[in-house]
Every structure is written in C-alpha cells, then in structure tokens.
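Proteins fold reproducibly. Look at a sample protein:
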Amino acid sequence: MESMNFRSLEDFWAFYVTQHSKPCTRRWHFVGTLFGIVFFLCSLIFSWWFLLFVPLSAYGCAWYSHFFVEGNIPATFGHPFWSLLCDFKMFGFMLTGKMDREMKRLGKRPVLQVF
C-alpha cells in the first residue's frame, strides 16, 4: 500500500469508504466487528481467554474481504489506529442503515452485487 498522509480522521474516512466499495466487503467487516464485540464481552463475563478471539475474528473477516472480495490491501497495514476508528464508524452506520447514504454523501456510489 502506498504511503498516504491524511490531515484528519474525516479525510481518512473518505479514503476508507473507497476501500470498502462492495457491499459484501462491508458485510464481512460488520460480521467481524460484531464477533469481536461479542468475544470482548465474553472475556469480561467468562474468561480473559476470549480476548484471543477478538482480533482473530475481527481482522480475519476484514482481511478476507479485502484480499478475496474487494481485491485491495487493508488500510490497517498503513493506518492501524484510524482504520480501527473507521471500522467502528462504518459498523455504526451499517447498524443504523445509514452507510449507503454516507457513501453517496462522499460521492462513492455503492457497487451492486448479486451475492
């Protein structure tokens, strides 16, 4: 991934959205983030061992979607902290049904897919 400098989280967010243009990519991220949250909660309730599954599930699903669905390199490799923040932002938009509207606001039309 080429080195890109961003001046703000909002600038990075616009780039982040372009890297998640396919609905299937966003769905894989949503599932990974959801499992990460569930495993984190399980670690608080049951055992700290569940913490091992937080990054495995979250990054596993996300990276799978980038390599095999979107066909790009995860932004995490170049900007890990901002990518994490934007992943939660995207999760929130998806949870509330606002992600397509956000993509249109940024001028990124959602890519239609059959699957």
Q: What stands out?
A: The first helix runs from residue 9 to 18. Residues 110-115 have pLDDT under 50 and may be disordered. The CA atoms of residues 66 and 72 lie 5 Å apart. Residues 9-105 form one domain.
